Amino acid sequence: MNEAPQEHTAGRALTLTGSASLLHFLVDALCACCLMQLAAQATWADMVGVVMVYNVMAFLTQPLTGMLADRTKQPGLMLGASAALLAMGVSAMLWACSGAPLTGLLYVVASLLGMGNSMFHVWGGKRVAVATGNDAAALGLFVAPGALGLAVGMLFHSWWLLVVLLTMTLFLAGCQLKVRPVSKELTYGTPSAHVVWLSVMALMALVMIRSLLGESFSADMGKAGFTVLAIGGVAMLGKIAGGVAARWIGVVWTLVAVVILLLLFRSNNPLLSLLLVNMTMAVTLWLANRVMNGREGLAFGLLAAALMPGYLLAQFGDERGQLALWLMLTLVPTVVIELAVLWCLRERRADVLWSSVVANVLTNVPLHVFIIFVSDSLWAMVAGEMLVVLVETAWYRYFAGPWRQAFIYSFLCNSISCVAGVLMQLVAQLVLMQM
């Protein structure tokens, strides 16, 4: 008697996964195509800033948009908002390329595209996980097409392609909004907050390493012409293969096989190494969803944001060891100071304390990279700290409670850690002068 409804639900879940995967390809291709078209009108120096803003908005905001995806009772709102933001981004880009002053519009375009991209990814990640009962193969299928979409948008960018991508994105998103949400009950137990956050931080560390390795293998192959398409295609196949393998032989054996094969073939074939590294994506996402049951949007967002530190380190080649050491020397004291502040404020909830550590990783590292390589002016540092206060206010609102309490936590933690950091630098300079 129950076979027909179950088959109907399974069919709807499969349809959702397929349409979300196609949308993933379209959204990433659209963003890449739009930025490449914009690059033809702007200077190289301007585009460096634009790409940085886009990456910050597209990746580092995903924990926040993921929280929103977990809280909203109407999942279609996230997809609708994403489609609207992407359309606005394309419109702003067309305005900029028509002769309007570029300076401000460049960053408007990057912000709109990045935020639209961010909202789409957490919508898709959560909906696929919930609809399929956290099926590893479905997760791999959803995340896979983005890499190929980026390659297609970069390699074949044109006005005609941009129009086609936007039209298809809006059409498919509109069709998806008419589909009634489907969910499959998950039967995982609820681990303690300590287990959850230690697991999440371990998975984020693994994602950072994967990002660093993936960028390194891609650099070994170069990024000219159709090599870009080959890199995107191999990354897509790796993600699909990882999801299928995790489903049939289990996540542990999949990880063991990937590690062994990487050790055997890393120095011989960068293309194969790239495929193997990408096989871990579905595995890490499956594990994150399992330990953060009910918060799949946040789980997806945290792993997406964790890609950025590895990506940034990969860009600095031989200097990345020194950069990583410096970032750790700034991050660890900040984490300790802010935990001490929360403790002095009589905050004892493990969820809040552990989440503070993760929030610092996601905000402290990009802020210091910006200060080191873009601008170390007083105004840049003040603006950066203010932005971090706002971001962490939204973060603590999710975990700690009312907005007032969240702002107090964020303001005091960041103010005290900032002042302590300045004092430590002054003391270090005085000691060096005496020597």
Protein model, in words:
It is a single chain. The protein is mainly α and 435 residues long. It has 19 helices and no strands. Helix 2 runs parallel beside helix 5 and helix 5 (102-132) packs across helix 14 (296-305). It is globular, with a radius of gyration of 22 Å. The mean pLDDT is 84.
Strand content: under 5%
Coarse structural class? mainly alpha
Helical content class: over 70%
Give me the count of strands: 0
What is shown here, in short?
By secondary structure, the protein is mainly α. Helices cover 84% and strands 0% of the residues. It is globular.
Sum up the structure in keywords.
mainly alpha; 19 helices; 84% helix
Which helices and strands appear, and what pairs or packs with what?
Layout: H1 3-39, H2 44-60, H3 62-71, H4 76-97, H5 102-132, H6 136-143, H7 145-155, H8 159-177, H9 193-221, H10 227-249, H11 251-265, H12 270-278, H13 280-291, H14 296-305, H15 307-314, H16 320-344, H17 350-373, H18 378-399, H19 403-434
Helix pairs in contact: 1-4, 1-5, 1-6, 1-7, 1-8, 2-5, 3-5, 3-14, 4-5, 4-8, 5-6, 5-14, 6-10, 6-13, 7-10, 9-12, 9-13, 9-14, 9-15, 9-17, 10-11, 10-12, 10-13, 11-12, 13-14, 16-17, 16-19, 17-18, 18-19
